[in-house]
Amino acid sequence: MSRASTILLILFSFAFFVALISAATNSQFLPQMEMTVIWLRQSMGSLLALAAALAILVRALNGKPLKDLITLVVALFAALAIVTTSWTLTFPLGAIVVLLVIRGFILPLIAKNDSA
């Protein structure tokens, strides 16, 4: 896990536990805690999406091939799926992951047949 991921995980965990402790001490705080958790989820997803988008931009400007950018596209879609719970973002994410898995199985078979 990278250093930035570790820092984000620590920040998220800290904020979540502070909200949880506050809710346990005051039952009237539950609606506010729910809004806090939603806000925290959206902010963390936005930060992850921004980091993935910037990484895609930097790699694309450096002339990296498309196969190196695909993993970042998956990260971008996953972060955007955290921000919004709509199926319109999770469907392309699932399609990309399924296609990457299929490509992982098919490309070695094609290379094996070409070498034979």
Strand tally is: 0
Overall tally of domains: 1
Could you say which structural class the secondary elements and strand pairing correspond to?
Answer: mainly alpha
Spatial shape: elongated
Question: Number of helical runs?
Answer: 4
Largest sheet: none
In angstroms, what separates the terminal alpha carbons?
Answer: 40 Å
Whole-number radius of gyration? 19 Å
Question: Uncertain regions: pLDDT < 50 for 5+ in a row?
Answer: none
Quaternary organisation = single chain
Measured as a percent range, the helix fraction is over 70%
- Encode the helix/strand succession as letters: HHHH
Indicate the proportion of strand residues. Answer: under 5%
How confident is the prediction overall: mean pLDDT?
80
Structure description:
With 116 residues, the chain is mostly helical. Helix 1 packs antiparallel against helix 2 (30-61). It has helices at 3-25, 30-61, 66-83, 87-115. The longest helix is centred in the middle third of the chain and has 32 residues, at 30-61. 88% of the residues lie in helices and 0% in strands. The protein contains four helices and no strands. It has one domain.
